[in-house]
Specification:
Elements: E1 3-10, H1 14-25, E2 30-34, H2 40-44, H3 76-89, E3 94-96, E4 100-105, E5 112-116, E6 119-128, E7 135-136, E8 149-152, E9 166-170, H4 174-185, E10 190-193, E11 197-198, E12 203-204, E13 207-208, H5 209-215, E14 232-233, H6 246-251, E15 255-257, E16 260-264, E17 267-270, H7 274-298, E18 325-327, H8 328-331, E19 333-338, E20 342-343, E21 362-363, E22 366-367, E23 372-374, H9 388-412, E24 415-418, E25 425-428
The protein binds flavin-adenine dinucleotide (FAD).
Length: 432
């Protein structure tokens, strides 16, 4: 028996919950299929001490607040609990423990056949909400010789998990800098390989950077400048939140290095680009401060001046070192943590919607295959798209698109669905 459902949403993370919210309020029948638990990635795909990178007042959906200080940073468990509570509040029809194993276009019929670990479903519409960070990626630079243990940041949990000895952390986005800092605080020798990054101030003139990016319209930036997808942001909500400054990390005793580029005879080689990466990160910070100052003065806001935030001091000493190698044996480095990002995994999606690089072909989440949608991807429609507050708005747009399509289908079936009132009221009409 094949079940029939109007919309199947694949994935019950924040994107799937947001999608359910908007489909539900538009009166569109749907189910959400989640192979684990609601917001599983927040529970089991992150390290133990992780807290949200944005404050509780901001990194949330409208309509439900976190049960903590709004300026505080919820733990990963609190974030997962928040989405579970949200799903309960809206009575989201989420089926947990059901994995989608294949989606393909139905032959000679509208919609899709969705095969799952719990049977088949025919759906007119499918929303792919399986997350932007499915498969860890790291370059195959260091061979698996047993000399060091290598793991991706998605498998890192805590310092005790690693064999005694020094650690090389590769990647200076939010994950890399937070993991390096935690490892150093646990007493280890830590080497941090730093690539291009941006580093906004945690707070400036009394406001968190998420506020500044909001009022300056940066979360809503729709067209990424060339390469913008690849510039990682280094921020942290750890210990109440602080600005990431590589000078501070060096002062903690972390050895800073350039990009990791090669390995030979037990030695890792690094590009001599640390100075350049630090300078570009500093420039990103200073330019945001300047934009913030201009906004304050243009709008006559009464926010305390913070001239000291503009004074960054000398570049970290590591930036002027001439040695760009790390001898694993000599430095007693026993582990490498690759904080180098993720890619998607659409092996189960057997519909012709991916380009030659395996990336979805879509416009604001509306794929090139009618009836199939993507949600939660970085820059899906704007900079905020893969973040908690951004996905909510993209989900609303996709629910609208589905409502519009239902209107066309219904017309052909002698009914009318008013897609334009937002709640897709079903209006039975007589045949003309
Ligand atoms: C370390 C880290 C920290 C972050 N911190 C923040 C932050 O502070 N604030 C913020 O706004 N964003 C943050 N993000 C970004 C983003 O909010 C998260 O990555 C978030 O988990 C993305 O939600 P999602 O629903 O799109 O994807 P996911 O959370 O990955 O959810 C996708 C779901 O789909 C399920 N799934 C996958 N394949 C299938 C299948 N075939 N069948 C059924 N189910 C399937 C998975 O089990 C998963 O539960 C962070 C990301 C990382 C990696």
């Amino acid at each position: 028996m094949t079940e029939e459902v109007e919309v199947v949403v694949v994935g019950g993370g924040q994107a799937g919950v947001a999608m359910s919210e908007h489909l539900g309020s538009a009166g569109i029948p749907h189910i959400v299929l989640e192979r684990g638990r609601i917001a599983e990635k927040w529970r089991t795909g992150r390290w133990d001490s992780l807290v949200a990178n944005g404050p509780a007042w901001h990194d949330r959906f409208p309509g439900l607040e976190f049960d903590i200080d709004p300026d505080g940073f919820p733990s990963k468990e609190q974030v997962a609990d928040y989405f579970a509570a949200y799903a309960e509040k809206i009575s989201a029809p989420i089926r947990c423990g059901v994995e989608v194993t294949r989606v393909r276009k139905r032959a000679g019929a509208p919609g899709f056949r969705v095969e799952t670990s719990d049977g088949s479903i025919d759906a007119r519409f499918v929303v792919v909400a399986t997350g932007p960070f499915q498969r860890p990626v790291f370059p195959a630079i260091i061979p698996e010789t047993g000399m060091v243990a290598q793991l991706h940041s998605s498998s890192y949990r805590n310092p005790e998990q690693l064999a005694p000895g020094g650690v090389l952390v590769v990647g200076a986005g939010s994950s890399g800098v937070q993991i390096a800092s935690e490892l150093r605080a646990s007493g280890r020798q830590v080497y941090l390989s730093v690539g291009p990054h941006e580093r906004p101030p945690r707070r400036y003139r009394g406001r968190d950077f998420v506020w500044w990016l909001g009022v300056l319209g940066k979360w809503d930036a729709v067209t990424p400048p060339r390469g913008a997808e690849h510039v990682t942001i280094a921020v942290s909500g750890a210990n109440g939140g602080h600005t990431i400054d590589f000078r501070d990390l060096e002062a903690q005793g972390i050895h800073l290095l350039g990009r990791t580029i090669g390995f030979e005879d037990g030695r890792v080689r690094f590009a001599s680009d640390l100075r350049e990466s630090i300078a570009a990160g500093d420039a990103s910070l200073l330019s945001l401060l300047e934009e913030a100052d201009a906004y304050v003065s243009d709008n006559g806001l009464d926010l305390p001046e913070e001239p000291e935030a503009h004074r960054l001091g000398a570049a970290p000493a590591g930036a002027s070192k001439s040695a760009h190698e790390l001898d694993f044996a000599g430095a007693e480095v026993k582990s490498v943590v690759w904080a180098t990002g993720y890619t998607t995994d659409y092996t189960w999606l057997q519909v012709d919607v991916l380009d030659q690089n395996g990336r979805p072909r879509h416009q604001r989440g509306v794929s090139v295959e009618p009836g199939l949608y993507f949600l939660g991807l970085p820059w899906l429609s704007r900079r905020g798209s893969s973040f908690i507050w951004g996905v909510w708005h993209d989900a609303k747009y996709i629910a609208d698109q589905i409502a519009i399509q239902r209107g066309y289908f219904a017309y052909g079936e002698g009914r009318m669905v008013d897609a334009f009132e937002g709640d897709a009221v079903l209006a039975e009409v007589r045949e003309r």
